[in-house]
Design brief:
With 167 residues, the protein is an alpha/beta fold. The chain has one domain: Rossmann fold (3-Layer(aba) Sandwich). It contains 6 helices and 5 strands, in the order βαβαβαβαβαα. The longest helix is centred in the middle third of the chain and has 19 residues. The N and C termini lie far apart (51 Å). It binds adenosine-5'-diphosphate. Adenosine-5'-diphosphate binds next to helix 1 and strand 4.
Amino acid sequence: MSKRVGLYPGTFDPLTLGHVDIVERAVKLVDELVIGVAINRDKGPLFTLEERVEIVETEMKRISGESGVVINVMPFEGLLMSFAEKIGAQMIVRGLRAVADFEYEYQMVAMNQALNDDIETVFLMADPRYQAIASRLVKEIARLGGDINNFLPVEVAEKLRKKYADG
Ligand code: ADP
């Protein structure tokens, strides 16, 4: 059988323990996982693309080592389906948090199926401890000086604190 390639796309601004949990589940389903870091200029990310990619790469080394699954981190821009086709992914992995995510993802899947019906979207749910974590809220807490240690990998929490301390 051919190699199963999965694509996990997102902005990762920055990578949270929620994202990490989804990756740990996704590697059970594929032979190779590509983490697509969206350039997303519109969203005005706090971390630059280079910073976001570097953070994801650092954290993925452990998961790749433990699971034996190749994890490649790649920036991308434009249509998700075009990127998925380019890298030969058969599967797109998304994390589902709450009903609010479902509404958006439901539409996305319908549209993406119209673009390429051979690529399946698979939804995974994080461990309940991590389900509520959202990069946007973690940034807000950090900006207001709150404790972010329960939401981010240790090095990422340090980087985020530094962003606001420097700013
Ligand atoms: P986007 O810019 O698409 O919102 P994110 O970087 O926020 O990208 O997230 C990437 C993917 O990870 C999305 O599918 C999102 O739903 C999922 N995700 C983020 N945080 C969590 C979490 N705490 N639990 C489960 N899935 C999550």
